[in-house]
From TrEMBL:
Residues 6-74 form the Polymerase/histidinol phosphatase N-terminal domain. InterPro entries: PHP_dom (IPR004013), PHP_domain (IPR052018), Pol/His_phosphatase_N (IPR003141), Pol/histidinol_Pase-like (IPR016195). This is PHP domain protein. It comes from the Bacteria. GO terms for molecular function: 5'-3' DNA exonuclease activity; 5'-3' RNA exonuclease activity. SUPFAM superfamilies: PHP domain-like.
Length: 245
């Protein structure tokens, strides 16, 4: 076994407020430059750009897990990370249909382009991906697990879109881990495995925060085992890109 560097919270150009420079090739190149062995693409409320980033990752020898950052009915964020593109896209279709339909405002949130591996725009999502779902947290966790995915509440210690900001507490759900922004923890984490990620919306933020997991290989199944068995560590806090661990 060895320690692998991971960042499970990265947004592409389709995410509201995601920079248009966050195309598949750029994401994979920056992840490789930062020495990441495994990343997850977690755009807001959709996995439509996951196939392109996954393809670029395969070409570069980087493990890219497909996922979403959900906005639940409570208006809190949760990472949903899947073992296969098929599972992610199936979940994504269901989740998108659950969103409160609001027309997208590009002047406020920027464009929402879906791209291919060559970074060519193949469609624009017309409804707002910044909307909340009608599905609550409990049902969302269950649905993610039904597709074999990992359910990880995002930045639980932030002042917005987090468990503590929206609920005032961390609920007792079968989370696979919790994501913290402040390391070491400043709030109760109830014994869940703790990870930290970049939440990158711009290329220079990829890998600025990360965690390490001990495993045979940087794969979904090995990551899941490492989380379950506590083979996780974090060593850095918001280091500038390019700083070695």
């Amino acid at each position: 076994m060895r320690w692998w560097k991971a960042d499970l919270h990265i947004h592409s150009c389709v995410s509201p407020c995601g920079d248009l420079s966050m195309g598949p090739r750029t994401i994979v190149r920056r992840a490789a430059e930062e020495g990441l062995a495994l990343i997850a693409l977690t755009d807001h409320n959709t996995a439509r750009n996951a196939p392109a980033v996954h393809a670029c990752g395969e070409e570069a020898g980087l493990t890219v897990l497909p996922g979403l950052e959900l906005t639940t009915a409570e208006e809190l964020h949760m990472l949903a990370i899947f073992p296969t593109l098929e599972a992610a896209l199936k979940f994504s279709s269901w989740w998108e249909a659950s969103l409160i339909t609001v027309p997208h405002n590009p002047e406020r949130y920027g464009d929402q382009p879906v791209v291919n591996a060559a970074e060519e725009i193949i469609e624009e999502i017309p409804f707002s991906l910044a909307s909340a779902s009608t599905v609550d947290l409990h049902r969302a966790v269950k649905a993610v697990h039904e597709q074999g995915g990992l359910a990880i509440p995002s930045h639980i210690d932030r002042g917005a879109f987090s468990c503590y900001s929206q609920l005032g507490f961390l609920p007792d759900e079968p989370f696979d881990a919790v994501e913290l922004w402040h390391i070491p923890p400043q709030l109760e984490t109830r014994g869940y495995p703790i990870i930290t990620n970049s939440d990158a919306h711009f290329p220079d933020r990829i890998g600025a925060r990360y965690f390490l997991f001990q495993a045979v290989a940087p794969t979904f199944s090995e990551l899941k085992k490492a989380l379950t068995e506590g083979r996780i560590r974090w060593e850095v806090r918001d280091l500038p890109p390019g700083t070695s661990s």
